[in-house]
Amino acid sequence: MSEYPFKSIEARWQEFWQKNKTFRTPEKPDMSRPKYYVLDMFPYPSGVGLHVGHPLGYIATDILARYKRMKGFNVLHPMGFDAFGLPAEQFAVEHGVHPRVTTETNIANMLRQLKAIGLSYDWDRVLATTDEDYYRWTQWIFVQLYNSYYDAEEETARPIAELISRLEGSDSEFAAMSPKEKDNVLAGYRLAYIAEVPVNWCPGLGTVLANEEVTNEGKSERGNYPVYKRGLRQWMLRITAYADRLERDLEDVDWPESVKIMQRNWVGRSEGAHVDFRVPESDDIIRVFTTRPDTLFGATYMVLAPEHPLVDILTTTGQQEAISAYQAKVAGRSDRERMIDAKEKTGVFTGGYAVNPANGERIPIWIADYVLMGYGTGAIMAVPGQDNRDWEFAEVFNLPIIRTVQPSEGYDGKAFTGNGPAINSGFLNGLEIDEAKSTMISWLENQKKGEGTVTYRLRDWLFSRQRYWGEPFPVLHGEDGIIETVAESELPVTLPPMEDFRPESSDDPDAPPRPPLSRAPESWRIISIDGKTFERELNTMPQWAGSCWYYLRFIDNKNDQCLVDPDLEKYWMSGGGVDLYIGGVEHAVLHLLYARFWHKVLFDLGYVSTREPFGRLFNQGYIQAYAYRDSRGIAVDASAVVDQDGRPAVEVQDHKNRIYFYEGAEVTQEYGKMGKSLKNAVGPDEINERYGCDTLRLYEMYLGPLDASKPWNTRDIVGVNRFLRRVWRNFVHEENDTSLVADIEASPELMGALHKTIDRVSSDMERMSFNTAIAALIEFTSKLVGEDRIPRTIAEPFLLLLAPLAPHMAEELWSRIGNKESLAYAPWPVADPILLQSDEIKIAVQVNGKVRASIQVPVDAPKEDVFVLARANPDVDRHISGKTSVRDIYVPGRIVNLVVR
RNA sequence: GCCCGAGUGGCGGAACUGGUAGACGCAUGCGACUCAAAAUCGUAUGUCCAUAGGACGUGGGGGUUCGAGUCCCCCCUCGGGUACCA
To answer: Shortest CA–C1' contact from A210: which nucleotide?
Structure first.
């Protein structure tokens, strides 16, 4: 008896592919052939290894890579690791193990797991963002950003040197400045610059925290230290310069419409006006941005963000206490929490007033947390008549409401946001909104009280981190405050060896940050060039940096002269960039926007040939699983959670009336994306061991459509395993292990079924509908069960169809029926159109839209004949006899509908 | 809060362009093989009423249409993102 020996088969073929470098993409490909660049979003090499959610996308891209090879494409299908980042650093802080060691161990383990799934990556192109010869070029790109500015007129990045020589020549004031002053001016232009921005500062940990690392009580997730909002000098990247292009060029890419919409909303272009409100008896001006300058006459009060710099000046002595208390309350909350609670309107009157520039009225100035410092100017004019949030605020605090747009007839709601003529608005009265806007903008401009403007929700990219395990900035700070970038020949600036990776903590919330690199040996920190002393930048880059351009490095990963060879770049990126990029929709905005931004800069500077990096994007769904949170709202390791009877949560999670505990403390259950955030990962190794990776591959694809999220449940896995065992029995004799494939003629029925299967599987491959492709193969396999011998003309095409999905079994059977070569590059079968045709088709007959019968008709039967046949059917006749015919409908090849009364 | 998705039998899902809802798989029932079990093969399986047959049915409510899982409006629930998790 030979039961499907998956272990030996899978080991043999994985070794074969590795030894023969079957899937290696030549460094110099034959460029006369079409190319297909299929890319996965690369993983973080976590300590727990791959979870079953990762391979969902990887198996899909692998199937396509294998399919495209069989279709004659040069395929580039690489894999790498986004290996800088917090967990390795955190582990280092806690256990004293260098992040490099942890990272290398984790990568080795994940490589083993990836290879064990039979993924056809070009293993010679594996890279990690932590490789010195990779981050050398990440730093190089940073230098390009620093040394460039955005020419808004020409809409392109240019070398800053061009701007300097222009200013030196035409601007005498600039020419006369000291180097330090010039630096300050240029910082206003560079694509990389330093600015002070508000952050969640945790002095106890000596670092900035993400919103998710801050608990509801304003404490740090780790260590429970207090967290403060404070300004910090940070590296920023001027992504806002590209806002328009990032929005506009979405038109040219084949991405899910929802992702494009999210990116457009994230960029958040809005047209409107800046309006200046004067503060009486002072020189202070409060500038606001509004999308509705036409409603200025209805601005009855102003609201500033609690952190707005003018608040302290405007606040009267009587209000001082209330204002400070409110500011303190708000400071401990994240922007997100402020927005979630936005329905509950809170705020405090500053005691100060401003003058409405349209009508000269004195209006009160409030502070409230629904106005965020990070958007617009951090101040708004409140127009309750036309804005819901303002209306609600005005109701709570008894502020005046003036309608300045005539609501439509019968309108009895609160704020009116629809169209209508202006009222109570002086010179605007009677004008429709669009006209009123432009009239008001010209008036403001004439009066020097404001101007028309476009703003974006998008903010510049905060690019520095107070961490060790990231790319060092190739930046030197001179004693005189002058900044210099490290010479290209000196790159990479490698991380110094260290034993203590903690940033310096402090009890003083205002103490300057001392990131881990401040503990680096002086020999690293301080360098001397031409007699001048410099200190290295002590911050590092965020994890986003390395993932911003890895798709380019895969094209030419060994190049030590430039980041990518131009000819290779042109070939692999032709046709609009990466041909297919698969990853989770969680990257819809940040990663994809950052990568597009860098790509556009590289395009402007002439290093890449396409405007966009990723021509086609596809989001795979999530594998979801139960997760658990403790009383502070922090996710705990799901595998260590037990119920009240001490049973592991994974065994009872579907049961009702369970209470869950983690280390003795009660936790709450929720359901969501499998991964590190929710700490609910399940690995693929166990399934591999028990059923083999061809089963795992098929199972993950058979779970449902690729873009749908679905729960992880191993119960159904036997189904696809039975399918593979059935295929094996069809091809290999159970007793003597010999091939059952023979050079005999196939029946016309079987041949017809095969070609319909070829047709179905081929179109399913094209539209990435792998679950239905597998269903088609299962159906066809059932038809083979009764056959003693499988005709070769059936067997070979069938194995080729199976090959991308279950490559180990396909290769094994392919070789057992006498083929000497791997099928990895064998041509994909083509369905014979003649065998797909049939003379008769089945048509459903409806009466008044309800199906009553189905009839066989010739494919080309004329309408009238079909109606006659339909009426002749007894099941139809029963429903139409005695009734008047109103209308007969025939959709050829699909349906008959007889409408009667 | 704001932005983006999803919701179809007991379960995972199919139905690609408005045209027979439930392909395929799991689970379950029955049968064959077997001393027996496993494996395998065959067969049935949306719900309700029932004799032929019929009514209902794609999260809920309304609408458009000869015909709606699919299009439009309102609502509910769940998931993703919300800028330092990536």
So the answer is: B84
Question: Whose CA is closest to A409, among A424, A396, A397, A419?
Answer: A419
What stretch of H or E contains A331? Answer: helix A320-331
The pLDDT value given to residue A624? 85
d(CA A265, CA A257): 12
Q: Which nucleotide has the shortest C1'-to-CA distance from A899?
A: B66
How many angstroms is C1' of B70 away from CA of A725? Answer: 37
Protein fold of A270-455: Isoleucyl-tRNA Synthetase; domain 2 (3.90.740)
Question: Å from A621 (CA) to B6 (C1')?
Answer: 11
Q: Which residue is closest to B54 in terms of CA–C1' distance?
A: A852
Residue nearest to nucleotide B53 (CA to C1'): A875
The helix/strand/coil state of A280 is coil
On chain B, which bases lie within 7 A of the protein's CB atoms? Answer: 1-6, 11-16, 19-21, 23-27, 39-42, 53-55, 66-68, 78-86
- How distant is C1' of B31 from CA of A1, in Å? 26
DSSP A224-238: T-B-EEEEEEEEEE-
pLDDT in tens, A83-126: 998 888 888 888 888 999 999 999 999 999 999 999 999 999 99
Q: How far is the CA of A590 from the C1' of B43 (A)?
A: 54
* The nucleotide closest to A705 (CA, C1' atoms): B13
Instruction: Name the closest residue (CA) to the C1' of nucleotide B24.
Output: A775
Closest residue to B66 measured CA to C1′ = A899
- Give the contacts of A597 (CB within 8 A, at least 6 positions apart): A237, A239, A242, A246, A461, A548
Choosing among 3.40.50.1820, 3.20.20.60, 3.30.1280.10, 3.40.50.620, the CATH entry for A35-129+242-266+543-622 is 3.40.50.620
Q: Which nucleotide lies at the shortest CA–C1' distance from A776?
A: B24
Contacts of A834-843 with C-beta under 8 Å, sequence gap 24+, read A835/A751, A835/A752, A835/A755, A835/A756, A836/A752, A836/A755, A836/A756, A836/A759, A841/A893, A843/A870, A843/A893, A843/A894, A843/A895, A843/A896
The model's pLDDT over A614-651, given as tens digits with 9 standing for 90+, comes to: 999 999 998 888 888 888 778 888 888 887 777 777 66
The nucleotide closest to A86 (CA, C1' atoms):
B85
**Confidence (pLDDT) at A1:** 43
Domain ranges of chain A: 35-129+242-266+543-622, 141-147+190-238+461-536, 270-455, 624-701, 713-835, 839-900
Among all strands, which nt has the closest C1' to A847 (CA)? B66
Q: Which residue is it, tokens 């952050």?
A: A199
Q: Which nucleotide is nearest to A853 (CA to C1')?
A: B20
Phi, psi angles (nearest 5°) of residue A368? -155, 150
Give the pLDDT means over successive 10-residue stretches in chain A (901 positions).
83 96 95 96 91 92 97 96 90 88 94 95 96 96 97 95 92 88 93 91 87 80 84 93 94 92 92 91 89 92 89 89 86 70 78 91 90 83 86 87 82 75 89 90 92 90 93 93 92 91 84 89 92 93 95 96 96 95 93 96 97 95 85 81 76 67 84 81 87 95 92 87 94 85 89 94 95 96 88 96 97 94 96 85 87 85 87 85 85 88 81
Q: How many Å does it take to go from CA A259 to C1' B6?
A: 15
Q: What is the pLDDT of residue A652?
A: 64
Distance, CA of A148 to CA of A133 (rounded, Å): 23
CA distances from A35 to A70, A71, A574, A576, A829 (A): 12, 11, 9, 12, 20
